[in-house]
Specification:
Elements lengths: L28 H14 L2 H11 L4 E5 L11 H19 L3 E3 L3 E2 L4 H13 L9 H25 L10 E2 L3 H16 L3 E11 L4 E2 L5 E19 L8 E6 L10 E4 L5 E9 L14 E5 L3 H7 L2 E10 L5 E3 L12 E6 L12 E3 L5 H9 L41 H12 L2 E14 L7 E10 L15 H10 L2 E3 L3 H11 L3 E2 L1 E2 L10 E3 L9 H14 L2 H5 L3 H4 L7 E3 L3 E2 L1 H6 L1 H5 L12 E5 L6 H13 L6 E5 L2 E2 L16 H7 L2 H10 L6 E2 L2 H24 L16 H22 L4 H29 L5 H20 L5 H11 L21 H26 L12 E4 L2 H5 L6 H5 L5 E4 L15 E4 L6 E2 L6 E2 L13 H13 L2
Parallel strand pairs: 1-2, 1-24, 3-4, 8-11, 9-14, 18-25, 24-25, 26-27, 28-29
Antiparallel strand pairs: 5-6, 5-17, 7-8, 7-13, 7-16, 9-15, 10-11, 10-12, 13-14, 17-19, 20-23, 21-22, 28-30, 31-32
Helix pairs in contact: 1-24, 3-19, 4-5, 6-12, 10-11, 10-17, 18-19, 19-20, 20-22, 20-23, 20-24, 21-22, 21-23, 21-25, 22-23
Length: 970
């Protein structure tokens, strides 16, 4: 029989407590997430959380949803915004609130009308061949379809809310509420009908509000036009005032010329023209021209005038000119006065401003300021001259149909030709400048005089809500009372409200909530009869806005004479619709409140929904419908460029979900600084996925290490080793950071500290040091029990802290550990004991980690040079000159801290050849090899291996653990 020493060693693997968990390393989120969503739906998660919070008497928090437009599948901007809203909802639930969040949709407006018109064209039908009732029904059906599509997309992102009771501006009850809000403005006298130039889209055939206009570079024709002086000083007689404009088509509507009394003007005589030109200039030697002195040279160069002479200075006050088209048609025989205007500058042009009061805001105001009231109508809704406009009847300013839609029509060219014929064109050119465009059609807009309905911004309102204040004053006071995240949003919206014009609320379209009112034909004032209003509201609640368009007026007017009243068929600005959503979402509903705690949208909504809601609520309730506003930036591609299909740089959230899961989008949204424009693309998503894997592996390791953990093995704080006390201190610090981050909606300040904690303190320190103890200590060992006690505390907090941001993964982790438990989403943030704070341990471990970094560096060199393999082969001698650094190791096993088999700490500088790091002065490491035998179970190299004759190949610690293991199974 062979000697005992030759017997094969025992296989100790079954005695090692390796982590065990069914929680997979590969997430499989695209498959796993729908399963979790199904469980949440079955449990009615959102309402279940609310019910639990309400039973506990939780404070109410209301996030009012800014409605996305029901047109098309969701894009990455939608995904970011709805995910941020879900962060708010879930984090407020976590903090112990009862959260009211009702998702909603904006359904009326032009984009849907266009789609229906397009569908009709594809079927060979025109819009005017379809009844308004059929057209509106098609719009309603179209919007309903996209609501369903978008709702499914938002739910797939993990967004929770009261989906079953979602709101839509096209719901009958919503349309009735919108009209009721409109009636409040009528009743308070804030509404008026005015004939004034408004921004008009010929392509869309409707007026546009400021919020519906964006500015793009645009090339326009420029012309310099001579207006002969017929009244003025002796010096001005026989001269012409020169104007410059980028809108030649407005010349037929000219009624005046504006000047500034702060600009110096002079009369110049042309002496010679440039020679060798390919065309004959329109100026001639002897012509007398009046322009601003500062701009004279620029004007004459444009006119190809080679030399000129100043005759004398001139004051334009009281001067009168002849219209430049007077010679061609008697219609233009009126006088053109010169009017002093504050808007005139000498930055460019001629120092004079051609003034067409029907086609410009400044033109209109200066015309009225000088006592004029008649505003000429020259251009119809299609952007063509009316039949009564001589020389140009029927010509279009902009093309409105076909491939040329939005391009210049023949009007500009025709006007220039007639000016040449009349001998009044001095020069022409082209200019690229910023020009208003419809944000929907992207086509240029024009200023066009048209009767519209407005809400006054600057007239005192004698209602209990406004108390004699103007709407502008009330809105500005409301802004001051509102919290803004980020704070810069306040200045932005304030500047817009301070300078905005009266609120244009009427539109000449079909799909929308109506301006449901009657106007007295004799007084031109709206009829305000509560009984009439009540009948209108009742009909709309029953039949929707269609009732206003389909029913006879007698159904509403009651005893009023129908012949005396004009029925208004305009529809309301969609911004009025969405600005009224607070009225039917936050009022007259259970378990909610008005005003909302928070509105959250993109930064562009300072001029959109935030502002329309502010104005609507200020005008009807005397304050904003929100206490706070949070804004996010736009989503760009990885290069910071705007996404577009033509560039091929669009990130489709549905594609990301199919490939990687919604959790990756959510983690990306949590990690970015959403207050600024954010970037996303393949590289960014890969970085996010890497961060996700590290977090998942952290959770997975804890689940495995906590297998079969029982509260009975918990260790009290007083018995905890220093490392565990430090981790508990870090949990105490993180608890404050997480709460502050969620309270302030700075989700980046939640996720990034947690990621750093998982990577630095957990994986690289706590798990690494305690791995040997967790695997090899006997189950009842204090050190192992303490490690698992702390790990349990970490798990409890990480799964709660991350639940708002990564709900799918935290739900999976929670139910893996507690299969019979309710959803992780029902939990509130765990309280963290104040006595976990331990600044002394934090200072100690900062010193320990500094010393450890030198040891790690030394061992890396040894491994690279192949003098050592694993760290367990080492027995470093660590020299520490700083007594405070050395004292940090008091009571600790240095070898355990360094993850080596043996280690020696020595006071002093150490030998010259020892390893050192510049960032850790006074620390030197001699990376010696461990002496002794290798433990067959823990692989540590120790002289004591074999000391226990029962287990000759084990260290004493391992022998004790195996003996306990054997005894438990005997």
């Amino acid at each position: 029989m062979a000697d005992d020493a030759e017997l094969p060693s025992r296989d100790y693997r079954e005695t090692v407590f390796l982590p065990e968990t069914p929680f997979p390393m590969r997430a499989g989120l695209p498959q796993k997430e729908p399963e979790i969503l199904a469980r949440w739906a079955k449990a009615d998660l959102y309402n279940s959380i609310r019910a639990e919070r309400q039973r506990a008497g939780a404070p109410l928090f209301v996030l009012h949803d800014g409605p996305p437009y029901a047109n098309g599948a969701i894009h990455i901007g939608h995904a970011l915004q709805k995910t941020l809203k879900d962060f708010v909802v879930r984090s407020r639930f976590l903090l112990g609130y009862d959260v009211d969040y009702v998702p909603g949709w904006d359904c009326h407006g032009l984009p849907i009308e266009w789609q229906i018109e397009k569908e009709l064209k594809e079927k060979g039908r025109r819009k005017d061949e379809v009844s308004k009732a059929e057209f509106r029904a098609r719009c309603r059906e179209y919007a309903a379809h996209w609501i369903d599509v978008q709702r499914d997309g938002f739910k797939r992102l993990g967004v929770i809310g009261d989906w079953e009771n979602r709101y839509a501006t096209m719901d009958y009850s919503s349309e009735a509420a919108i009209v009721a809000e409109f009636h409040k403005f009528v009743a308070s006298g804030q509404l008026y009908r005015g004939s004034k130039p408004v921004m008009w889209s010929p392509v869309e055939r409707t007026a546009l509000a400021d919020a519906e206009v964006e500015y793009h570079d645009h090339v326009s024709p420029t012309i310099w036009v001579k207006f002969p002086v017929v009244e003025g000083s002796d010096a001005a007689r026989g001269a012409s005032v020169v104007i410059w404009t980028t809108t030649p088509w407005t010349i037929p509507a000219n009624r005046a010329i504006s000047y500034s009394d702060s600009i110096d003007y002079a009369v110049y005589v042309v002496e010679a023209m440039e020679q060798g030109l390919e065309f004959e200039p329109w100026a001639k030697p002897g012509d007398k021209l009046i322009v601003a002195e500062k701009l004279a040279e620029d004007v004459f160069k444009a006119a190809k005038i080679a030399s000129w002479r100043k005759l004398e200075s001139v004051d334009p006050q009281g001067m009168v000119c002849e219209h430049p088209l007077h010679a061609l048609d008697a219609h233009y025989a009126f006088q053109v006065p010169l009017l002093d205007g504050d808007h005139v500058t000498d930055d460019a042009g001629t120092g004079f401003v051609h003034t067409a009061p029907g086609h410009g805001a400044d033109d209109y105001l200066v015309w009225l300021a000088h006592g004029h009231r008649d505003i000429p109508d020259t251009v119809d809704p299609d952007g063509a001259y009316y039949p009564h406009v001589p020389l140009f009847a029927g010509l279009k300013v902009l093309e409105t149909e076909g491939k040329k839609a939005g391009k210049f029509g023949p009007a500009n060219g025709a006007v220039m030709e007639k000016l040449i014929e009349a001998g009044r064109l001095l020069a022409r050119g082209r200019m690229e400048h910023s020009y208003p465009h419809s944000w929907r059609s992207k086509a240029p807009v024009i200023f066009r005089n048209t009767p519209q309905w407005f809400i006054r911004m600057d007239e005192p309102v004698d209602t209990p809500q406004l108390g004699g204040r103007t709407l502008r004053e009330t809105a500005l006071e409301a802004i001051e009372a509102t919290a803004f995240y980020p704070a810069g949003g306040k200045n932005r919206i304030r500047a817009m409200v301070e300078t905005r014009p009266d609120w244009l609320i009427s539109r000449q379209r079909a799909w929308g909530a109506p301006l449901a009112m009657f106007v007295d034909k004799e007084t031109n004032q709206p009829l305000h009869d509560p009984e009439v209003d009540a009948r209108i509201i009742a009909a709309i609640e029953t039949e929707g806005a269609d009732a206003w368009f389909n029913r006879p007026v007698t159904d509403f007017l009651g005893g009023h004479d129908p012949d005396r009243y004009e029925k208004i068929d305009d529809i309301l600005d969609v911004w009025f619709d969405s600005g009224s959503t607070h009225a039917f979402t936050l009022e007259n509903r259970e378990h909610t409140k008005w005003p909302a705690d928070l509105y959250l949208e993109g930064s562009d909504q300072h001029r959109g929904w935030f502002q329309s809601s502010l104005l609507e609520s200020s005008g009807t309730r005397g304050r904003a419908p929100y206490d706070a506003i949070l804004t996010h930036g736009f989503t760009m591609d990885e290069n910071g460029e705007k996404m577009s299909k033509s560039k091929g740089n669009v990130v489709d959230p549905q594609a990301v979900i199919r490939e990687s899961g919604a959790e990756i989008i959510r983690l990306w949204a949590a990690m970015i600084d959403y207050s600024d424009d954010s970037r996303i693309g393949k590289t960014v998503l890969q970085t996010t996925a890497d961060a996700y894997r590290k977090l998942r592996n952290t959770v997975r390791y804890m689940l495995g290490a906590l297998a079969d953990y029982s509260p009975d093995e918990a260790v009290e704080l007083e018995q905890m080793p220093p490392l565990e006390r430090f981790i508990l201190h870090r949990l105490w610090e993180l608890d404050a950071q997480v709460r502050a981050g969620y309270e302030g909606y700075v989700f980046q300040d939640v996720i990034r500290p947690i990621i750093e904690f998982c990577q630095n303190e957990l994986s690289s320190l706590f798990f690494d040091i305690r791995r040997d103890s967790l695997y090899c200590d006997r189950p009842d060992a204090l050190r192992r029990r303490a490690a698992r006690t702390v790990m349990d505390a970490v798990f409890e907090r990480l799964t709660a802290w991350l639940a708002p941001l990564m709900p799918f993964t935290m739900e999976e982790a929670w139910t893996t550990r507690y299969p019979q438990a309710l959803s992780n989403c029902l939990r509130q943030i765990p309280e963290t004991p104040a006595d976990w704070r331990n600044d002394a341990e934090a200072e100690r471990w900062a010193k320990i980690q500094l010393v450890t970094s030198v040891v790690t560096g030394a061992l890396e060199v040894e491994r690279r040079e192949k003098r050592l393999g694993a760290a367990l082969e080492a027995a470093p001698v660590v020299h520490v000159a700083d007594a405070a650094l050395l004292a940090a190791f008091d009571g600790l096993d240095a070898a355990e801290v360094f993850r080596t088999s043996q280690a020696t700490l020595a006071a002093g500088e150490g030998p010259a050849g020892a390893f050192r790091l510049a960032e850790a002065p006074g620390v030197a490491v001699e990376p010696l090899k461990a002496q002794g035998a290798k433990c067959a179970r823990s692989w540590r190299i120790l002289p004591e291996v074999g000391s226990d004759p029962r287990y000759p190949d084990l260290s004493l610690r391992d022998a004790d653990a195996v003996a306990a293991w054997d005894a438990a199974r005997a």
